[in-house]
Amino acid sequence: MEDVGEDVDTEAVEKAVHRAKIRLQSRSPFFGTLCYFAEFRVTTEVPTAATNWKNVEVNPWFADQLNPAQLDALLLHEVLHAALLHVKRRGARDPYQWNVAADIVVNGIIDKQEGLELPPGPMRSSDLEDKRVEEIYMLLDDPEYEHLRELAEKWRDLLEGEGDLESEWRN
């Protein structure tokens, strides 16, 4: 267990993640089973949550702000990236723009599931979410989707240390 200070009870977040995996299993055996193929770790090393297709890392401050339906959606979001091989399929493409495209697909799938609620500020584009990630990635160069490219740049800044979401979660 990682020490993240007095503001968040990491052990409680780890238990909440475990309960979320159980809820996903009972809600949807398919999605729940996907969760059991990943190793989950609560850590401050990621701003929200992330996967490398084998492991899922969850930020305790971010997870602590979510209700159970949102935490379930967050875990499913990460395991869907793994199940759909988004990390492996990226290849040499821009990782931030690829993540925007992949998030649109994954969040579209989650939005259609009964009893799940996407956390605040999800990457959504209802006109694109039924397309393949590769198609969305190419469409992001279209001026019509400039706002999505801007979101990719915002994530780039955050992940390269120029943004600060943690202070927002702690307020």
Care to describe what's here?
With 171 residues, the protein is mainly alpha-helical. The protein is 54% helix and 6% strand. Helix 2 packs across helix 4 (68-83) and helix 4 (68-83) crosses helix 6. The relative contact order is 0.13.
How would the blueprint of this fold be written?
Elements: H1 10-27, H2 29-35, E1 39-42, E2 49-51, E3 55-58, H3 60-64, H4 68-83, H5 86-89, H6 95-111, H7 133-139, H8 146-159, H9 166-169
Parallel strand pairs: 1-3
Antiparallel strand pairs: 2-3
Helix pairs in contact: 1-2, 1-4, 2-4, 4-6, 6-7, 6-8
Number of strands: 3
SSE order: HHEEEHHHHHHH
Q: Low-confidence parts lasting 5 or more residues at pLDDT below 50?
A: 1-5, 164-171
Q: What gyration radius follows from the Cα positions, in whole Å?
A: 16 Å
Beta-strand share of residues: 5-15%
Order of strands across the biggest sheet? 1-3-2
Largest sheet: 3 strands, mixed
Offer a few descriptive terms.
mainly alpha; 171 residues; 3 strands; disordered N terminus
Brief overview:
The protein has 9 helices and 3 strands.
